[in-house]
Amino acid sequence: MVSAHSSTIAAIASPPGVGAISLVRISGPKALEIADIACRGIASSTMPRLARRCKIRDKDGSVIDDGLLTVFLAPKSFTGEDTVEFAGHGGILVTREVLARFLGCGAVHSSPGEFSQRAFLNGKLDLTQAEGIMDLISAQTRLAIRAAHSQLEGTLGKRTTAARDELLEILAHLEAWIDFPDEDIDTQTATQLRSRIDGILETIDSLLATADQGRVLREGVRTVIFGEPNVGKSSLLNRLLGFDRAIVSDIPGTTRDTIEEVINLGGIPLRLVDTAGVRESEDIVETQGIQRTVRQIEDADLLLEIADSSQPRPERAIYPTNHAAHLLILNKSDLGEHPSWEGVEATRISCLDENGFDQLSAKIHTALHFTEADFGEHAVAINARHQASLALARTNLTAAIDLLTEESSSPEFAAIDLREALDALGEIPGKVDTEDLLDVIFSQFCIGK
After folding, report:
1. Which residues of 252-282 are buried (b: 16+ CB within 10 A; e: fewer)?
2. Closest Cα to residue 197, out of 417, 384, 388?
3. Are 309 and 330 in contact (CB under 8 A)?
4. Pair 400, 418: CB distance under 8 Å
5. Which sign, positive or negative, has the C-alpha torsion 313, 314, 318, 319?
6. What is the CATH number of domain 9-124?
7. Where are the domains of the chain?
8. Distance between CA atoms of 104 and 403, rounded to whole angstroms?
9. How many CA atoms lie within 13 A of 35 on its CB side?
10. Which residue in 100, 172, 204, 308 has a CA-CA distance of 20 to 30 Å to 155?
11. CA separation (Å) from 384 to 52, 213, 219, 389, 428?
């Protein structure tokens, strides 16, 4: 495979900061030539895929770093181009100096995601697999890793491509019917066409059903901790996190803004939001914090309402309603429970001695109905981009079925809807012209990936 890119790019592919090893990557038509200049001809004489010790030297011959060089020749590389990777010492300065040397020898600095974008453009992976790379890098739970690997293996791309291929056959048949009405073509009836389209709709609906799981895996369950002041909201946050993130005080109104952290609760990422206590207040800053609490409640996936079980049960505050799961948590069980809470269904805990937290974890799992059992053998969890394309394809396919049902309707109009559905499905694996879309997607990647 010959790359369509004339430039050769280079970037640091390891995380920023100090580590044992760093990785600098070069890709493009002059990758070997540039590496040869920096390491005195070792790159071009190295067997592909065999790590070889080499020294990266500056222009005057002084050694910058001593490490391992690996060569990957096109098309058998991640990008589909000639690629050279240098693994050296993980210091910040020395890694930057190695990169600067490669840039000085003729490479240009890559933009975010450019290596993955070249892999896509050179046919090494489809767009869903490229997105799977980013999902894998940012995965926060084992389930998220599993879903990302499924996408990297091409599960989503294969399913959408199969649906697109089927739709292409239907469209070809319909257009032949339109263009050659007098020819002896084995035309299918409108009923048969609708049946085939229904099969594609079933595939689309099954993928759309994973949208909520995909959002949860990538963003976490938006979990809002709320209640009156001084009932233990910040203490609950700190105990769930395992460290003191929020300030805890007996003074009401200590928390005046929302605090967000992510935890992994049995494979489910929870985006915990600690909020200001809701009460009447004349303090302008505290009032703004309370208003933010109300907005957080409106947007929540899971509501953890916490109250002080040692105090009389208050009159129920009026909070915004949404369709989120809602758990009542009674804190300070170590102080004894006030009689007014008798018979109230709630999870009873003590943030002081950490009693009741196993039960709380179980209740959260039950409330979310989200476990490994929700995934099949091949996990697929679509993202917002996939969801939009699938929804558009579904709308067009439904319109085409309606037109094919009407005897007075011209089949040309149904063909238009089928073409639009074809384009929408093609956008998911990147089988249509999506230059602007590519720029948006790959700009979210790390530099060097």
Report:
1. ebbbbebbebebebebbbbbbbbbbbbeebe
2. 417
3. yes
4. yes
5. negative
6. 3.30.1360.120
7. 9-124, 132-210+381-430, 217-374
8. 62
9. 31
10. 172
11. 43, 11, 11, 9, 11
- pTM here is 0.74
Q: How far apart are CA 115 and CA 28, in angstroms?
A: 10
Strand partners, 273: 224, 260
Q: Say what the pLDDT of residue 249 is.
A: 42
Q: How many CB atoms lie within 10 A of CB 318?
A: 7
Query: Mean pLDDT per 10-residue run, the chain (449 residues)?
Result: 71 91 96 96 94 95 96 96 96 96 96 92 91 86 82 90 92 78 54 89 92 81 84 84 56 51 79 66 51 72 88 72 80 90 90 88 81 54 90 96 82 90 92 66 76
| pLDDT at 253 (0 to 100) | 42
What CATH number belongs to 217-374?
Answer: 3.40.50.300
What pLDDT, on a 0 to 100 scale, did the predictor assign at position 433? Answer: 60
